[in-house]
Amino acid sequence: MWHLYDGVHCVLTDEGGAILNERTGRWSCLTPTATAAVMLLLASASEEEAAGRFAERYSIPAGQAVTDMHAVASALAAQGLAHDAPVPLGRIRQWWKGRPS
């Protein structure tokens, strides 16, 4: 399952989207198709599952969907926006610590 890194925020709609990287202050704008790919990556258990759902949604061959999904996933990883490994337990932000009860 793909996850956004801490400090990365996205706004994703059917009309397109954008991703903000707080560390760099840079916005990445997405086409509607790329936005759908990102939504599927974040909501699916694996890149392969996301590709299957992408192929179904856009009525394209499975091989093309796998290629497209891999391209989007690779771009997210290369830009330091997302990763496909679980976050180690020691790095999970515990928002409730330090708050008054």
- Backbone CA Rg: 15 Å
- Arithmetic mean of pLDDT: 87
Number of strands: 5
Distance between the termini: 33 Å
Low-confidence stretches: none
Q: Which secondary-structure class do the elements indicate?
A: alpha+beta
Helix fraction by DSSP (H/I, runs of at least 4): 40-55%
Proportion of residues in β-strands: 15-25%
* Strands in their spatial order, largest beta sheet: 2-3-4
Q: Give the overall shape.
A: globular
Mind describing the biggest β-sheet? 3 strands, antiparallel
Separate helix tally: 3
Oligomer: single chain
Order of helices and strands: EEEEHHHE
What is this structure's SSE topology?
Blueprint: E1 3-4, E2 8-13, E3 16-21, E4 26-30, H1 32-43, H2 47-58, H3 62-78, E5 82-83
Antiparallel strand pairs: 1-5, 2-3, 3-4
Written account of the structure:
This protein has 101 residues and is an alpha+beta fold. Helix content is 41%, strand content 21%. The protein is built from 3 helices and 5 strands, in the order E-E-E-E-H-H-H-E. The protein has helices at 32-43, 47-58, 62-78, and strands at residues 3-4, 8-13, 16-21, 26-30, 82-83. It has a 3-stranded antiparallel sheet with strand order 2-3-4, with helices on one face. A hairpin with a 4-residue loop joins strand 3 and strand 4. Helix 1 (32-43) crosses helix 3 and helix 2 (47-58) packs across helix 3 (62-78). The longest helix is centred in the C-terminal third of the chain and has 17 residues, at 62-78. The protein is globular and about 35 Å long. It starts with a strand and ends in an 18-residue tail after the last strand.
